[in-house]
């Protein structure tokens, strides 16, 4: 029996392993294994809400082991450190508890078919001080760490009196930085109802720093303009064409020798695949560690290794690479599933063609802006307000349906609605 291993339980990886489990695991035609370094899945576009406490991972996250039991695959907790494509083996690092005791030793996992879906991490471009002084939002653990620091800072500002201000600096004007900027004001306003009557968005100063000429560089200029206008209205200082050259305890130094002071600093600029990927013998990688693939999403050297999601470098007809977005990962997962199924039947494989269905940026409860149907209408169908918000929420619901099925996804969505009524709207611990 063949063994199919998916490394990475993000949007694409989890959707793929669910389909493989139902098609091959349930019928005992293959062993399906998911490997992830975390026990819990959260849809990555929602990490900024975890970071502010608007979303509680304990209530809204998915436990891989429980999901595996219902969807006919196996789950292994582990951090991938090496791949040997010639021997068809993976190496997982040893796992220790908080006291340093080894829970699981270093392990080797064999595979017949491998899908690399390890996602991406923030790229600090070697900027001095960033690793030591900034928070990152690459995982729910990092987001929860920032949420604790943010809550402590809110408590400090509230205690110091009405003149105190909380200063936050976010480097990176992509979707994460933009959405986090708006969400911070929303959370500050909500704290009035939770024992901090003097707290509000007016006591928060957020500076969004982008090295390029405008925020949201990957999206149409009109969306960027609408988002910038809304952020400025909220009170965000949007600093464009501003390059950070150093981070220190208490702020950033910019290329023009100016300093930006901050109580909390978040780095959300640039993405790259994890560094270990570049060291795998036989994989061709880009300067951002992404793995180059053929049109079928197989690696250039090994037909039994597929790559999906942010770690995949798939070149399009115009020479550009498929952008690292959730919709890309979803589409790639669907194609790889079809190609694996075709390989079992000795049929020809399909080639991947990215379809841009548009982009949406959610500015918390204040606004949502974006364009729909991307390359089908030339990106000219712009939406904002309630319609855009409805579509944005629908994308998350489609993800729930993909990993749970219609019935359970409907129950989960109903439970989330009820939870908003009976539970605090903020995670306060």
TrEMBL record:
It comes from the Bacteria. Keywords: FAD, Flavoprotein, NAD, Oxidoreductase. InterPro entries: FAD/NAD-bd_sf, FAD/NAD-binding_dom, NDH-2. Pfam families: Pyr_redox_2. The keyword Transferase does not apply. Residues 2-333 form the FAD/NAD(P)-binding domain. Transmembrane segments: none annotated. Belongs to the NADH dehydrogenase family. This is NAD(P)/FAD-dependent oxidoreductase. It comes from Marinomonas vulgaris.
